[in-house]
Design brief:
heterodimer; A: mainly alpha; MetI-like fold; 13 helices; globular; B: D-Maltodextrin-Binding Protein, domain 2; 21 helices; 14% strand; disordered N terminus; Bact_solute-bd_prot1 (chain B); Chitin_NgcE (chain B)
């Protein structure tokens, strides 16, 4: 590279890199630093405690509970969101009747696309407020009101939704209800993502498959799914991040932010309680750092496992 | 100490994102916050240096400014604007920069170690943990405010306060928190409805359980409570424990004394609550505070337990002819302290240690506690102020019934401290209270679990212990 070009490039890069270092890398380093102290968050005095906070993490029952709840979301959120998004994308793009015009989606697919994508344009708070009304726990709730009217649910015993800690399949019911919101609000975006990927698959591959007598089932599992592997893998990583967070939903939708009685406690809610209620910022930083390390490892493992030869078409 | 809840649904996207970021994967903004907090120089006072006098006991400098942050919750913030008028009448040259918010901790905590506001009303669901503030030396002791002359009456500021107010604001022997509101808790009912139906408001559990079938026969649920915020049912449960088992038991509980929860009377105090749930006397559904209060206003339930901010919080939707009336929590026949009323000063103001104009902050507190300011407070909020005689000239059934309740009460005020002392115990007791009220715990199981939670805190050496003496 000629000297002048290097200077030109450096000139452009210096500012963003400096900003990145100052506002991203440096705070990360600071958080890691605070995680080795017993800082309380309201003063500028702190004591170095070494790895004590991390040792404490492993014996903290609440953290263990929160961890398994996060693992639940880590498995279910990507699984259900991707399954639903794939199903919708397939129907909207290649699931319809094949005719002279070639392969197409089901009737009215362009309208459905808008409808399914809609949750994505709503702000999180709007979604939460809306679902609070849907999940309202008396006869004025959307679901409860309907079910009580048609007699499926007794007026004396409405569904408690996010206030229900009773296990369903061994998992507190509140987590399933939160999962439903997460999948509902996420599926639209991934449907669009998968639609775009599907449209880049040449139509003749489908036509060839159909000529060979493949039905919808076989076209999907033998053609679409293998060719979307790359996109799905990326979606899985993104959704993994979302599943490890889930804070906003837990914060807004559950009683005492992680309740009832810790039934929906997740990493982030315990972290928030530890830092801002208990005033143990040092320990809370340790939780944040542990979560960050876990996330990075997970993403790395994920991308490595799903790495394969790329198919060009 | 009491906390009025914020109304739900006004969680802004900005706050939410900030919190999500602070807590979730994005450690970045959180860490940015953290970095903003540490390693600052103590700031210099901008307000000192004025001449001290009876009308300016802290020597506030003319021409200085004071930043006041008001919690805009169940009580609103209009009363505080009136205090500003009172303050400026005496100090026209001191600028009061007043702002109000519902997110006290979110907005004020990051500034505490560097450039805090001068006076912060630390209240609401998003308040800064009081023990942490004191342990970290982040707020100023205000004992000199108590000995300062009152704003517009004879004697000192301390002389004007209602009983309990100084004690409620004291920790480790120093006075830190100035509570400006006085809250009375109990069971509310609609006196107009009771008159029409010929019902007598019960004073004991037996009377209530006798009345309950009659209420049910009218298609109403006898009782409703907030089933989302655990501190609502906790007030009721702790009041019952005090009444039945006596003050010393609650003091022992606050002091984490061994087997304090297993003391005589605690089980007996909680059994009526267990029965209330088991007999299906609660309105079905897990409603939050405003939902349950609205259900009560709509006549779906006969009684609701909550504090005196209720009137102001629900002002917009009270049906005409509805006579909001407060009655004491119900007692049993052989209770130790059946007459003691659950009342406390609340809505606490704190002065950050690093505030640039502490003198003016204290002077502003003097104005809030003035006769003129307190009267405005009672008039506007329909709640009592923590000063004597604030509600004397207000015509209102809710306020009048609270006044009557206070006058007929026993010698002591019911107060509970452990939730202010220990964040862990606060959370556990909230959770377990809701579990008891949901019927998932019996009274005996509740006691076992509370004892276990208290033992855990007692054994945890990372938690600084507090002692309650009175």
């Amino acid at each position: 590279m000629r000297h002048g070009v290097a200077r030109f490039v450096t000139g452009f890069l210096a500012l963003p890199v400096a900003l990145y270092l100052l506002y991203v890398v440096w705070p990360f380093a600071q958080a890691a630093g605070y995680s080795l102290t017993d800082w309380g968050g309201y003063s500028d005095s702190q004591r170095f405690v070494g790895l004590d906070n991390y040792v404490r993490l492993f014996s903290d029952e609440l953290i263990r509970k929160a961890f398994w709840h996060n693992v639940f979301f880590l498995i279910t959120v990507p699984l259900f969101t991707i399954a639903l998004a794939l199903f919708l994308a397939f129907l909207l793009n290649v699931g319809g009747r094949e005719d002279r015009a070639g392969i197409r989606g089901v009737f009215g697919s362009s309208i459905y696309k808008v409808i399914f994508f809609f949750p994505q344009v709503l702000s999180l708070v709007v979604i939460a407020v809306m679902w609070q009304q849907i999940y309202r726990t008396d006869g004025q709730g959307l679901i409860n009101g309907l079910l009580i009217k048609i007699g499926l649910v007794g007026a004396d015993n409405p569904i408690a939704f996010t206030a229900d800690p009773e296990p369903f399949l061994g998992i507190p019911a509140v987590l399933w209800w939160l999962l439903l919101i997460a999948v509902w609000s996420g599926a639209g975006f991934y449907m669009v993502l998968f639609s775009a990927a599907m449209q880049s698959i040449p139509k003749d591959i489908y036509e060839a498959a159909i000529l060979d007598g493949a039905g919808r089932f076989h076209t999907f599992f033998r053609v679409t799914l293998p060719l979307l592997r790359e996109t799905i893998s990326v979606a899985w990583v993104y959704l993994g991040f979302i599943a490890l967070d889930m804070y906003a939903l837990v914060f807004v939708m559950t009683p005492s932010q992680g309740g009832p009685n810790h039934a929906s406690e997740i990493f982030a809610s315990v972290l928030n309680f530890t830092a801002f209620q208990k005033g143990q910022f040092g320990y809370a930083c340790a939780m944040g750092v542990a979560l960050a390390i876990f996330t990075i490892l997970l993403a790395a493992a994920q991308l490595r496992i799903t790495r394969r030869e790329r198919i060009e078409f | 100490m009491s906390v009025t809840p914020e109304t739900p649904g006004d969680l802004s996207r900005r706050t939410l994102l900030r919190r999500a970021a602070a807590a979730g994967l994005l450690v970045t903004p959180a860490a940015g916050l953290l970095s903003a907090c540490a390693g600052s120089e103590p700031s210099k006072s901008t307000g000192a240096g004025g001449t001290k006098s009876k009308d300016n006991p802290f020597g506030v400098k003319d021409g200085s400014a004071v930043k006041v942050v008001i919690f805009n919750g169940g009580l609103g913030d209009q009363w505080a604007k009136e205090d500003k008028v009172v303050f400026n009448a005496k100090h026209p040259n001191i600028t009061v920069n007043m702002s109000s918010t519902q997110k006290i901790k979110t907005e004020e905590q990051p500034k505490m170690a560097t450039q805090p506001s001068d006076l912060v009303m630390n209240s609401g669901a998003d308040m800064m943990d009081r023990s942490t503030l004191i342990n970290e030396g982040a707020i100023e002791p205000l004992d000199d405010l108590l000995t300062a002359p009152a704003w517009d009456s004879e004697g000192t500021v301390a002389d004007t306060l209602l009983p309990g107010t100084v004690g409620d604001g004291t920790q480790n022997g120093k006075f830190y928190v100035v509570n400006v509101a006085y809250t009375v808790w109990g069971n509310w009912y609609n006196a107009a409805l009771f008159k029409k139906e010929g019902w007598q408001a019960p004073t004991t559990w037996d009377e209530f359980f006798a009345l309950a079938p009659k209420i049910k026969a009218k298609g109403m649920a006898p009782y409703v409570h907030d089933a989302v915020h655990g501190y609502y049912p906790r007030w009721a449960l702790m009041a019952s424990i005090w009444k039945t088992a006596g003050k010393q038991v609650v003091v022992d509980i606050d002091n984490l004394k061994e087997n304090a929860w297993k003391a005589d009377g605690v089980l007996k105090a909680l059994e009526p609550w267990e029965k209330l749930v088991k007999d299906k006397l609660l309105l079905p559904g897990k409603l939050d505070h405003t939902q349950s209060q609205q259900a009560w206003l709509d006549g779906k339930a006969a009684f609701i337990q909550v504090g005196t901010w209720l009137k102001n919080e629900m002002a917009a939707t009270i049906p005409p002819g509805f006579e909001m009336t407060l009655s004491d929590y119900w007692s049993n026949a052989d209770d130790k302290a059946p007459k003691d009323v659950f009342a406390a000063s609340g809505e606490g103001f704190v002065v950050p240690s690093k505030a640039p104009n502490k003198e003016a902050a204290k002077e502003f507190l003097r104005a809030i506690l003035s006769k003129a300011g307190s009267a405005k407070f009672a008039e506007l909020t329909k709640s009592l102020a923590s000063t004597k005689g604030s509600g004397d000239n207000v015509q209102d059934t809710a306020l009048a019934s609270a006044n009557t309740l206070m006058k007929n009460g026993g010698s002591e005020l019911i107060s509970v401290k452990f939730q202010d002392f220990y964040a862990d115990l606060d959370k556990e007791s909230q959770n377990l209270s809701e579990e008891l009220m949901a019927g998932r715990l019996t009274a005996a199981q509740f006691i076992d679990k509370m004892q276990a939670a208290a033992d855990k805190v007692a054994k945890d050496s990372s938690i600084k212990k507090q002692t309650r003496t009175a």
